[in-house]
Amino acid sequence: MTTRADPSEVAGDATDAAKAAPTPEATGAAGRRTGRIRPMPWWCNMTLRHRLLILLLSTTAVVLAFQGFFSTRVLSNQLAEVHDQEMRFAAESIRQLLDGQPDVRARASSGVPPVVDPGAQMVATLLEPDGGRTELISQRGFHPELPSYAEALRLADSGEVRTSADSALTRQYRVVALRLRSSPEVLVVTDPDSLRGTARTVVPLNVAFTGAGLLLLGVATVVVVRRELRPLETMARQAEAVASGDLGRRVELSRIGSEVGQLGVALNRSWEAVQAALQARDASERRLRRFVADASHELRTPLQSIRGYTDLYRHGALPDTAAVDRAVERIAGETRRMSRLVEQLLLLARYDSEQLPERVPVDLGVLVRESAADAAAVQPDRPFEVEVADGVQVRGDPDALSRLVANLLANVRQHTPVEAGCWVRLRGEGGTAVLTVTDAGPGVPPDALPHIFDRFYRADPARSRASGGTGLGLAIVDTVARAHGGEAVVDSRPGEGTTVTVRLPRARRTDVAVLGLPAPGKTERVEEAHLAEARGAT
């Protein structure tokens, strides 16, 4: 069966197709939007030196050309005005002579030869109404075409000076006409337009001087621009070196007040910022790698111990309840050790990233007394001697400073026998708080002293692990001291004991007064007997 389409539907489809089809204008616009970028004009690819030179020379040439053109026109007009005045004066003098001395006209009319002046330029002629002409003054080689009597009358009535030319248009001359008062003749005076030619001779001179000036200007511009742009070329080389990885390059600044000097200052600041950012990134990456390496290294041993005991328990290798209890106790001990280790690592990571808590004035003497009492409670048999000066305040994190003092005393406890004495002293030296912890232990070997503040460093690894040490105690002391603007140093000799000295900047008096802390006073000496209460509590 054949189906016929509705004409209205066919027309509608055609209309829709026509609407959907892109028009040439739309296609062209889309082509322009999606087409390739047109190349830049040739002058945009030129160097700044060449563009400045071309711009300056072209601008100067145009200005000089206009100046030469208008100056020549002005000079020509002024010379023509002077020439015309001279012609009018000469014509008036001749007319007065003719009107006052009729014999002159009579002699000229009777055929007397005209006056010939070899040095004169003008020609004087009398025009009569009947067309006759009488030459009064002539010039060799100059025979101008004179106007008719009627034209001379009109020129005389107008009082103008007219420019005329010969039939060949090879020579121009000026024409002035005057009526005689005593007769109907008209005096016509003509003169070659030599002064305008004189003005035109200035044109080659202008061209020559303009060319010489442009040449000198071009040479001077090249020299000056090259000298002024030399710092920019140096900056470009420095920028290429920085882009190649040499971040220590800087621009030498000679004229900071100039635009080039300001650009150099901006480049140096930007390069310093980039270098600081890259250094901060590298330091952050080093801290992260160090933290991961330290954590993986130190957590490996307790994790292996915990895994070993759990494997023994899972395989039934623990024969009785007592063995299970010992295994659980060992697992708990290793867990506590890992907790301490993680806390210490987090503390070091926080200080490495400079995420410091808000600092407040802290009475360091109170922290020293409390830590000494805690140490005496842990080891009642160890001789302690504490000397604390009153009013030694610092500004910092109380928890971190308390950990610093506790780690110093824990280092004595872990690395010296119990019978070795310990002396703790706190004093103020001007604007510095000085804390020293001295023990009578075996001392530190000389080869171990340079590494005493390294993380996880142990002069005697077996003994340190057996005593529960993590190798981070003195590293935390050094990190906390530096974070508070101070330092920690160690002095030790084998067989003579070890002294650790921590120096911290003291708090300002205004901070102390705000918190109402005691002012600096005398030193309080706490002997071994005064720690008996702490030992008895143990």
UniProtKB/TrEMBL annotation:
From the UniProt record, list the reaction(s) this protein catalyses.
ATP + protein L-histidine = ADP + protein N-phospho-L-histidine
Q: In which compartments does the protein localize?
A: Cell membrane
Provide the Histidine kinase domain boundaries: 294-508
Question: Entry's Pfam families?
Answer: HAMP, HATPase_c, HisKA
Positions of the UniProt region annotated as Disordered: 1-33
Enzyme Commission (EC) number: 2.7.13.3
Q: Which Gene Ontology cellular-component terms appear in the entry?
A: plasma membrane
TM stretches of this protein: 52-70, 203-225
Please give the chief subcellular localization of this protein.
membrane
**Alphabetized UniProt keyword annotations:** Kinase, Membrane, Phosphoprotein, Transferase, Transmembrane, Transmembrane helix, Two-component regulatory system
| Segments of skewed composition (Low complexity) | 11-32
Which cofactors, by name?
a divalent metal cation
* Keyword Transport in annotation: no
HAMP domain mapped to chain residues:
226-279
Q: Write down the InterPro entries for this protein, in alphabetical order.
A: HAMP_dom, HATPase_C_sf, HATPase_dom, His_kinase_dom, HisK_dim/P_dom, HisK_dim/P_sf, Sig_transdc_His_kin-like_C, TCS_sensor_his_kinase
GO molecular function per UniProt: calcium ion binding; phosphorelay sensor kinase activity
Q: Which SMART domains does the UniProt record give? A: HAMP (SM00304), HATPase_c (SM00387), HisKA (SM00388)
- What's the protein here called? histidine kinase
| Highest classification ranks of the organism | Bacteria, Bacillati, Actinomycetota, Actinomycetes, Kitasatosporales
